[in-house]
Amino acid sequence: MSDVALCQRIPLRTNDPSLLDLSDAELYVGSKMLPDGVEIVSYLKRYIASRYYFMVEEDKTPLEIVVTPCDYQITVKVFVQSLPTDSSGFGAGDDHDEILRQHNSLIRHPIDTSQPIKVFAGNDVMKYKIEEAYSGVYIIEVLAEERDCSVRMSVTTLPFADLIYPELPRDRSVTLRPVSRSAVELSWKPSPSARRNGQPIDYCVAVNRRRHFRTHCAAHAVKYGDQPPTAPPDIGFRFAWQPTSDYRKPEVAYRIAEEENDGDITTTKQGVQTVGPGASQIAETDNMLYECVGNRTRFVYAEVFGSGVRYYFDVFAINRNSNTSATYSGTQAISRNEGKSVKLKNGKLVTVHLKRNVPERFFVYNLERKSPEITFQVQPCSGKLNVSIRSARGITIKSLKNISRLETIAVTDPQPGQYVIHVEKHGRPRSTFFRIVASSDPALAPYPNLPTDVSVQTFEKLNTCNSVTVAWMGTGNRQKYCLYARPETPKTTNRYQDDRCVGHADRPKSQKLSCRYFRATSERRSVVTENVRNLSPGATYEFTVYAVKKNGMSLPYENLIVKTKDNC
To answer: CA 435, CA 499: separation in Å to the nearest integer?
Structure first.
């Protein structure tokens, strides 16, 4: 198989439809021949050198070789061998047997790779460029030194035209801006490839506490694991001497590769396999965020916890069509916050105290799977609040200012991922309480439903010196309504007005007048009425209606102040 790999001649750039399509992933699996202008992915075995071949047929041809390690240290050597010139080599005889003659010629001229023309090592992107390369067979020898790992390679004779990799802007830096005590915003300049060349460019972000990632495939390998890519179901050049029926079977191809101690090749368009991380990577994966944000050039990271913790931020530009990538200059920061974001559990109500010197808090809700809707509810107990909700990509979904009562924000057709809720005081910096809950299941919502009109009315013509008739609007959901009353005196405190989170269960039983279930069947039949008797003549009463959810919370309507008639 290795002899066949050395003799296979890759067709030159041409519009001739009779030649093989270079974009076909099946052509290069196991062949060790590198296509011109296409990035491939190969899997290396530790301490076993793998060789890959590229043919330059004319002198003074520009040549660029790019090798991208996937996180681990590798050594790369580049050799060159002159092309054979005997009668059985290139250009002899008719075109029909040309590839066969290449095969026989290279077998008779074994390649001498004693002196490499270039050697480099490391875990960063390695580039070797020759302005005017000599004709010959160029051999790229790659050795994995730390462990089995993936590597990406590309060779091109048109480095200024191929544009294999996304172009980075002149300013490749990633800007970091704190937006709260526990959140930072990343921003970067877009890749010129989208504007100049019309390439579909997306961006991915990696955040961790251990190190920078020099390549996108390194971050991907740590997050999802680095395993051999899956071979296409139909492989090979289909030459006459190949046992096509067996060679096309993946298990046969892998057996051949194992016998030769070589890695397998697949094109970048197949992508890196998404598999679980290995045991050695679990600790690093747990502390790592990896997320692709589409074509956005901003990202909010809202989990900066602790004090003195160093965070590393990396951004990658990805060509969606070819899956090639380029890495921006990463940045890092040390957290100095005293607080942290609060993680919201699905359907669990949280009560938060904002002290006088704490103006804001951040909350994080993780939607693990697809859901028709997410509901966010914020209830100020006192004072007024500003609330904003953003996705992990930094997109503001909803922003509310100066809220004083329960607000419900519904996000329809949400995408799985992280959502950041920012709550801050509005107005004077005084101490305040509020409640917050997030849920992807309406049944878990703790609050009852309230109508649009939450006023409580009275019928003056029906009121007497010892009775009052009050009314309020119900909803289409069957739920309980409780009516409370207390006499108004000069010594009466405004506790129930100052603390809007006080529920019916917090009121004295002596103030409870009645509780009843009600469901509005139509708009005309949506009014609930209650006649309150045994009141004192000429007295002022404050009436409060509570909508109560079964085994849940209660919400008050607006208070009603009524004075009974002096004389009956």
So the answer is: 12
